[in-house]
Amino acid sequence: MVVHVALHLSKLFREKRGLSIFIIFVVLIIVFYSINKLFLTPRSVADIALVATQDGIIALFVTLLLIAGEFDLSVGEVFVFSGMIFGYTIPLLGPYLAFVVALLCSGLIGFTNGIIVTRLRAPSFIATLGMAFFLEGLIFVVTGGFEVTVNLSKIPFWYTLSGDLPDGLNVWVIWFALFSILTYFILEHTRFGNHVFATGGSQNSAYAVGVNTRRVKLVLFVATSVISGLVGIMSLLYYTAISPVEGQDLPLIVLAIAVIGGSSLFGGVGSIEGTVVSALTIGAIYVGLVLAGVPSYYYYSFVGALLIAIAVANEKLLKRKIQI
Amino acid sequence: MSDSLERRNTDSSGPLLRVKDLHKYYGNTPAVREVSFELGYGEIVGLVGDNGAGKSTLVKILAGYHKPDKGEIYFKGKKVEFNSPYEARREGIEIVYQDLALISTMPIYRNIYLAFEPKRGIFIDKKTMKEEARKFLKSMGIDVDPNKLAGELSGGQRQMVAIARALMFQANLLLLDEPTSALSVYEARETLNFVSRAIKDTYRGRASAIIVSHNIHHVYSVATRILVMDQGKIVLDIPSKEMSPIEVEEYIVKITKEKASQR
Lengths: 324, 263
Ligand SMILES: Nc1ncnc2c1ncn2[C@@H]1O[C@H](COP(=O)(O)OP(=O)(O)OP(=O)(O)O)[C@@H](O)[C@H]1O
Ligand SMILES: [Mg+2]
Hints:
The structure holds 2 protein chains of 2 kinds.
Chain A: H1 2-15, H2 19-35, H3 42-67, H4 75-118, H5 124-143, E1 148-149, H6 158-162, H7 172-189, H8 191-201, H9 203-208, H10 213-239, E2 241-242, H11 250-260, H12 272-291, H13 298-321
Antiparallel strand pairs in A: 1-2
Helix pairs in contact in A: 2-12, 3-7, 3-8, 3-10, 3-11, 3-12, 4-5, 4-10, 7-8, 11-12, 11-13, 12-13
Chain B: H1 2-7, E1 17-26, E2 29-39, E3 44-49, H2 55-62, E4 70-75, E5 78-80, H3 85-91, E6 93-96, H4 108-113, E7 119-120, E8 123-124, H5 126-139, H6 155-168, E9 173-177, H7 185-202, E10 208-212, H8 216-220, E11 225-230, E12 233-239, H9 245-262
Parallel strand pairs in B: 3-10, 3-11, 6-9, 9-10
Antiparallel strand pairs in B: 1-2, 1-4, 4-5, 7-8, 11-12
Helix pairs in contact in B: 6-7
The structure holds adenosine-5'-triphosphate (ATP) and magnesium ion (MG).
Magnesium ion binds next to α2 of chain B.
């Protein structure tokens, strides 16, 4: 009986990689709540959402990229770069054009990443790390290390991108929900999504039966960059300032979110559901540890341990199911 | 998929395939040289030859996977230059690769329809994909659940599913590169008979096949014609009735020995 249940459970975990993080999420909620009843007040939920949604929106696209077998270490610098372009060009171009230009620049950076990876065949680790350093240098040259600030009264659409909702929430929750639904349907129900899985599963085999694997990757690099740029602008509007160093942790945090959510660094495997729950879990850990009175440095250790545990467990489970 | 068949208007006056002076080099090594041949409708050709003779390279060129360095290909009466496997498949050329089979991390039904997924509006039609895949696999005598990941299959099952995929799209030209290498003797015979029946009955003379194999005896049972390749060239091209499998085997051994003595 016990063996039967265990077998059944192990099968379930193999079928649904996002499941482990879902269970961890539920357990953590219960633990944090029993430690401190403030954990489930609107204020805390809003704090969780703030952490989860900013990183989560980028993580959704990084998930697609990971499933296609690539990743992007430049998302953090694109985040800052786009905010900087937006803030600096408003006086010249007005807010709307500045917004478009910032996103175009972000898209161009993603396009460059994609070309370097798909045409010049550099590993995405090298290509996007190089791009991150390049942008970081540029950002410091342009800003002199100072924050970029904006004056919201000059930006009519600021509320759409970072306005407050009741109960301390802000519209990022809505954006996160919309992008989650969008990426979910793209991944699970469109040809493009099928090609994303195929490209990461085996680029050669996918190409050999007719998938345009280069285009899949290029599109994803561009999309990831544009979204990182968008979130950079959203963050600038919310805090009315963005600092040149703000993007440094971001690429690794979003990568961690995707992997904790069940995406494989080897490509071909992953899910949007997993990433959504993972992003919420990261937010919950952040807020939960603060409310539990644990010094905030432990946050990183906690996330790190979780990352390793889940990544190792998931690869083991996958290997037991199929020979790769 | 019947509509895709309709779209492929076949001009059956000339040959189905005409290859003229095809060359392909990997760096400086010639893999395919001076290859010319024609393929009529309804033919099943056994393409044999030693390891490294250039068989896979030749069929990969025909499938749009490689671009030839020189030479021309005419398919269904018109000159074609495929820039990708996708373009070749769209024209009606299906291939089972020797080295690139299914994607292990994807379900069988998604593998089968990859790059040609049926759609309903903007979304892919998973229900149709699953049902049609199950039906077709069953008709070939393959009893697997299309929801399973390809990586969960045995080597033989994978090969059968890859062959099913090639047959399912009602191609005009089927290229099978070592399709029976992972199959048992019985499975190999059943599968090749299925291919042969498909060419004769289902396609009713609108299609042909090239079957690459090390095992001359495997292909002889279904091939109407034998092509032998050696060092990138076609060195023998005869109807299978005119030479026994043993004689072909001896011929290959002879040229291989000559090659060795020349060194
Ligand atoms: N991707 C490649 N890069 C470099 N050389 C290659 C490549 N593929 C094949 N070759 C070389 O080209 C020649 C023809 O190889 P090919 O695979 O077409 O032969 P084959 O007849 O299919 O052999 P086998 O029966 O072993 O499958 C060989 O000398 C091989 O070493
Ligand atoms: Mg070969």
